């Protein structure tokens, strides 16, 4: 399961965030938009951030607690493949720019 705060919690309604949520759901990782209490953070097996320039960035440690990076790395790879046009299902996400 992937938990992320909802938009009304103050997170940005970014394109990358939306694409990662869609990819995660399509790849059988259910995503739940819910308030994430701070008490959940130390219990997390994995955490990652999304952003326009970095796509998906796995967080490797929380304090001294080492976190897994499998899902974050997988989503980062898939998003990069989508953005480079390698996955036909998501071709409509890209805009061809002619020079």
Low-confidence stretches: none
Helical amount: 25-40%
- Sheet-strand content, in percent, reads 15-25%
Strand order of the largest sheet: 1-2
Distance between the termini: 42 Å
Please count the helical segments.
2
Q: Report on the biggest sheet.
A: 2 strands, parallel
Count of extended strands: 6
Mean pLDDT: 94
SSE-based structural type: alpha+beta
Shape: globular
Helices and strands in order:
Blueprint: E1 2-4, H1 15-26, E2 31-33, E3 47-51, E4 55-59, E5 61-62, E6 65-66, H2 70-83
Parallel strand pairs: 1-2
Antiparallel strand pairs: 3-4, 5-6
Please describe the structure with a list of short key phrases separated by commas or semicolons.
6 strands, 99 residues, single chain, alpha+beta, 26% helix, two-stranded parallel ribbon, 2 helices
Explain how this protein is built.
With 99 residues, this protein is α+β, with helices and mostly antiparallel strands. Helix content is 26%, strand content 20%. It contains 2 helices and 6 strands. The strands form 3 sheets. It has a two-stranded parallel sheet with strand order 1-2. Strand 5 (61-62) and strand 6 form a beta hairpin.
Briefly characterize the structure.
The protein has about 100 residues and is an alpha+beta fold. The protein has two helices and six strands, in the order βαβββββα.
């Amino acid at each position: 399961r992937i938990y992320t705060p909802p938009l009304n919690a103050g997170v940005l309604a970014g394109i990358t965030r939306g694409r990662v949520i869609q990819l995660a759901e399509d790849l059988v990782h259910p995503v739940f938009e819910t308030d994430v209490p701070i008490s959940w953070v130390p219990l997390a097996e994995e955490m990652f951030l999304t952003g326009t320039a970095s796509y998906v960035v796995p967080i490797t440690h929380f304090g001294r607690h080492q976190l897994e990076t499998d899902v974050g790395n997988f989503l980062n790879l898939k998003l990069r493949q989508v953005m480079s046009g390698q996955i036909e299902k998501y071709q409509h996400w890209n805009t061809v720019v002619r020079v």
